[in-house]
Amino acid sequence: MGQLELSNVWCTPLQGVSLRASAGCLVIVCESEPPGAMLINLLAGLKRPTRGAIRVDGQSPHQAPALRSHLGTLLANEEPLAGVRLDEALRRVLAPELATDVAISAVLATADLLENRSEPPTLLSYEQRRKLALSIALATPSAKLLALFEPLMFSEPAFREQVLASLVELAESTPVVCVTASTRDATALGGTLYFLSSLGVLRGPVPVDEVREPQAKAGFLVECDDPARLAQALSTQPAVSDVRWLEEHTLGIVEALGPDIFAVSQAIASAVLDTGSNVRAVRSARKLRDTEQPGAPRP
Question: In angstroms, how far is CA 111 from the centroid of its own chain?
Fold first, then answer.
């Protein structure tokens, strides 16, 4: 059973984060992406705190390579795997005990990517890359910790339910830290709830009602090659309350906002499929300021 402890951790934009857990699910509702993304990077050992300490079973993730093979992580931005074939790319990144044909097939099956095993990893969509990264995390051998950014941010209900069932089982013996901007997902995940402000201050445990903001508008920035067409399709989606887009040279960005971030993600997935848009990246959008007018072009 893993033991997680954060002691007065500072690393921009996080400010003095302290947390202690053994088995169980810790759900951190983040007000904006940067603090939540940084927290996951620290837990994954990709960043080192500028002050304070992080310990998993008494070891620092940043300083213990052997420990990192027992950390299952889903980052805010997952890059495509390098390689000519997806299965061979997986073989290089998986732990040795998972680098077998049977284990690779199981990971691909969880991510619904068995038919893509012979394709280049660069052909995977944004959601497929995140599905694969999450499937790898869930298969972590002898996991000491799972640190997951938006683990339920997927359009297929069946996959969400599959992930929930896996997390419930893993949380019986392992600390599972989930960072999300959706109170709907936080409620579905259960466990102990914390709130991480945009200033990087962690508060909790708190009841879910304290972090629910029914009128808050949050969503995503979508980089694509035809922003006007995608924005038009999103404007017809009931879950999207505000859409704005910017096109400059070859760069196209669509900002889609709404009161429920999960519903907005589903609307984006539907609009992308309907329009056949070529999406380069998706990232969390900041909240719409009260002084801004819906529909106004972004500067």
Answer: 15
Render pLDDT for 91-135 as a digit per residue (tens, 0 to 9): 998 888 888 999 999 999 999 999 999 999 999 988 899 999 999
Rounded CA gap, 204 and 189, in Å? Answer: 16
Among 201, 189, 197, 233, smallest CA distance to 216 is for 197
DSSP line for 157-196: HHHHHHHHHHHHHHTTTSEEEEEES-HHHHHHH-SEEEEE
Quick: pLDDT tens for 214-226.
444 667 888 888 8
Average pLDDT over residues 130-154: 94
**Reported pTM:** 0.74
| Residue count of the chain | 299
Residue 276, helix vs strand vs coil: coil
> In angstroms, rounded to a whole number, what is the distance separating the alpha carbons of residues 130 and 220?
15
Q: From CA 214, how far away is CA 184, in angstroms rounded?
A: 11
pLDDT the model gives residue 72: 96
Name, in order, each residue with C-beta under 8 angstroms of 168's C-beta and a sequence gap of 6 or more.
25, 190
Q: Which residues are CB-neighbours of 235 under 8 A, at least 6 positions away? A: 243
CA–CA separation, 173 and 24 (whole Å) = 7
CA proximity to 8, closest of 42, 64, 61, 51: 51
267-281 tens-digit pLDDT? 898 888 888 888 888
Q: Are strands 24-30 and 175-180 parallel, antiparallel or unpaired?
A: parallel
More confident site: 130 or 259: 130
Half-sphere exposure of 123 (CA within 13 A, CB side): 12
DSSP state of 78: P
Residues 171/173/174/177 CA torsion (nearest 10 deg): 20
pLDDT in tens, 160-187: 999 999 999 999 999 999 999 888 788 8
